[in-house]
Amino acid sequence: MPIYGTALLSICLIAGLIAGRLIGMAVGVDANVGGVGIAMLLLILASDWLRRTGRLKPLDESGITFWSSVYIPIVVAMAASQNVVAALRAGMVPIVAGVAVVVVSFALVPLLSRVKADDVGTSSNTASRGDE
Question: How far is residue 20's CA from residue 31's CA, in Å, rounded to a whole number?
Fold first, then answer.
């Protein structure tokens, strides 16, 4: 079944790369802008649509799940290979933006962990009281 997942991944990747190239041309940049991220979103949307319409059989879903889990490290590796030197030559803005994103992300981890823990605690208390 990974063959089916590979076909869907390839279609989404090609469509995402085309869309990223068009976005780059529209903003005046000679680069692919967000194509891999768009491809990832297309993969999520396409697999969800196939599942909802009943066209995704349980055996086929295992191939999609496999490629979906492998795809995130691929996206990270591709993002890491971007032209960092050219971005740093642009000045301090990329450095400040990068540091700000990391600081905000680290700051949100405890907050999001508490929200998730509260949701889990609330749902188990409700179910144990028989309110559902």
Answer: 8
Distances (CA, A) of 75 to 22, 41, 86, 109: 19, 12, 20, 21
Running along the chain, 132 residues long, what does each successive block of 10 average in pLDDT?
Answer: 72 91 88 84 88 82 78 70 69 83 90 72 52 47
DSSP 52: H
- Identify the CA nearest to 40 among candidates 61, 62, 15, 59: 15
Residue 114 burial (CB count, 10 A): 10
- Please answer whether residues 69 and 30 qualify as being in contact, where contact means their C-beta atoms are separated by less than 8 angstroms: no
Backbone torsion region of residue 42, taken as left when φ is above 0, otherwise alpha when ψ lies between -120 and 50, otherwise beta: alpha
**SS3 category, 113:** helix
CA distances from 82 to 15, 21, 30, 33, 68 (A): 20, 15, 13, 11, 22
pLDDT score for 1? 43
Q: Position 81: which residue type? A: S
Distance of alpha carbon 29 from alpha carbon 10, whole angstroms: 25
Q: What are the residue boundaries of the structural domains of the chain, listed by start?
A: 1-82, 84-132
